[in-house]
Design a protein that fits this description.
The chain has helices at about 20-45, 50-70, 75-90, 105-125. With about 140 residues, the protein is an all-alpha fold. Helix 2 (about 50-70) packs parallel to helix 4 (about 105-125) and helix 3 (about 75-90) runs antiparallel to helix 4 (about 105-125). This is DUF6113 family protein.
Length: about 140
Amino acid sequence: MSGRTAGTPALAQPLRPPSPGRAALYLGLFLLGAVLGVAGALVQPGWFPGGLLLALAGEAGLCLGAARAVRRRAAAVAPAAGWALVVVLLTAGRPEGDFLFAAGSGSYLFLLGGIAVAVMCATLAPVRRPDDDPGRPGK
């Protein structure tokens, strides 16, 4: 058995904090998502339809690739959270009047499309399943 007490269902077990290695992995994915958010913000207005698609495809590749490599949904959520945090911070104007995003359709498609891509990748990510759970039908 994998850390469960006999007779206790998997859902009744208390949550454990992640191991230091897994926490470092999620932090690295968060930072990689933040870097990808900055890169996407710079690429998407440059080559309008192609840059936008390239930025969103990069985010989808990072989120879904991380989730499939680690086999956890949290691995898809970590880079998506880093991406979202950086993009939201970049949309805020400064007191001097400087901004990175123009008020155009491409910027809104980047923001809303990126959020939609993150949700889709977290939904499509593989879920950890108990190995030997006799209560699961169809096994």
